[in-house]
Amino acid sequence: MTEDLKKAIIDYVKKEYLEEDTQDDINESTPLISSGIVDSFSMVSLKTFLEKKFNIKIPDDKATPEAFDTVNNIINLLKEFKVV
Amino acid sequence: MSNIGSYEKRYEGFDWKISADELEYGKDGMYNIAYYCSDRIVEKGFGARTALIWQSFKGEVKKFTYDDIRVYSNTIAQFLKESGIKSGDRVCIFMDRIPELYISFLAILKMGGITQPLFSAFGEEALFTRLEDAGTKAILTTKKHVPKVRRIQDRLPALERVIVVDGNEQSVKPGEIAFNMENSDRVDRFKIEPCGPETPSVLHYTSGTTGKPKGAMHVHSAIIAQYLTAKWVLDITPDDIYWCTADPGWVTGTSYGIIGPWANAVTQAVLDSGFNTEKWYQFIAQHEITVWYSAPTAIRLLMKDGTELAKKHKLESLRHLISVGEPLNAEAVIWSEQTFGKAFHDSYWQTETGAIVITNFPGLKIKPGSMGKPFPGITATVVDLKTFEPLGKTGTVGLIAIKPGWPSMFRAYWANKEMYQSKFKKDWYICGDRASIDADGYFWFVGRDDDVINTAGHLVGPFEIESALLEHEAVAESAAVGKPDPVNMEVVKAFVALKPGHEPSGDLELNIMNFIRKKLSPLAMPQEIEFVDSLPKTRSGKIMRRLLRAREWGEDIGDVSTLEND
Asked: Contacts of residue A22 in chain B, CB cutoff 8 Å?
């Protein structure tokens, strides 16, 4: 389940935030926010994606740059909502 | 003792000649900004001083002396010249905050070009609009961002050169040029292109309520204001390690992230990383930052993570803190005093002013929440919203207005004379912001006087967003307004009426958000979309954005007598 989830998030990040012909690759521990792949404004669309996919509402105080910085961090955040 | 000393004494009888004399501006016929930021510092004997400490998000650190900056900017300037770029050509810099960005900025000026820095998070349509408007001849970019250029290049006949500064022969496509600053033959001597004080230097794009973004054109003598405001407001000295967190895609990142500090021979540090509280504190501690110029949005994000996290890091090196971009709320001033032992000093200016015009000065009492007082040499007031006559009474809200003539004032909007002229009323430059002045002469910000959205200190034009929204297959009509946000002051909210055959859904909302983010920029992406059946319009069919905005802010919706339907 967790692996499927990781893959879904990685696929979404690749599709929405990376250029098609990029040579960069990402995995579950790649920094997303601090590397600039996803900036703090774009984080909102990633948050919206997670909320819609899992039918949850992530409060603003939980949606921090640190909580979204890697796919692993996002999985940890989702565990709080018992969707993992 | 601060650099400015007594504000009152400086203000009385001030003459910009103080700055020009300190810089020796115009000596031997030299007016080029790039000379004053590199060659002159070396000639003064400070070539070995560190000019730039750069750190990547991975923690890699590179250091460049002033002589490195001089030689590398020569090297790039020579390369640009040999590539066919000529004096007066617009050359865009489109990359993340890597050393090549800062050095290319000077290189373009050295060879006589007009430098056009653009925020690297811009999407292809935002990039296209600005390159087309400026008739940009060349763009310096990186492997990461060149795909966006490739997708619009066919529509840009003036764009003759695409230069990839981290590319090699294998990674670039036909027609593109790979160039590597550090691997190129160093050019020790380069004849800086002669120019006058009024020669165009920097072109920064800014957004308005209507129409496309406008290119605010600055000239070389702007350095007279940028040098002295950096010295007196940022209070930097050659012993400081200075950190400006702004991206040079915006005016703060060039006026005070390149020109001001380097003209003052200061060591400046750059962190090429997204926001992360822990990393920011580590960066300050590691490089012993002494002067820090940041933004209210960042300060509010730091506040969210609390004082305790700050206390875990060695931040004692900080001695002066300044903020810009949007009004700094009183809570943030008080929090910074409690957390760092220093209050953030708010500063006010805009792309068009080119340099700080109203600010809280070191040594002058801070009134938390106030913008401060005008810089010496700046005649500022608030004028009546309709007559544009100065308001005599303290505490009355009017438009912030500045008497034209300060050195860094923009000289034109690129190819838009009419818009430029519209900014001046009765011999005042009208900033477009509302404020009041108290009995002590402090300015207090009230808000914008137009529909432009100030999100995290960046101005976003609703027209540009609405135009892009209309290109989405499901959107029939739309309105973009700012809605309150506790961190960013405002964020974009879009009201969208859908075409027949499309139904509101969460997936469609996300699809539209990403559509705008990729087309324009993350800043322009609506953080909320409200689907509506129709939008409120005047009888002449104009969308009443004002009404939608007032609802978001819980304000009086005002006169709706021209409303078509309700």
From this structure: 144, 147
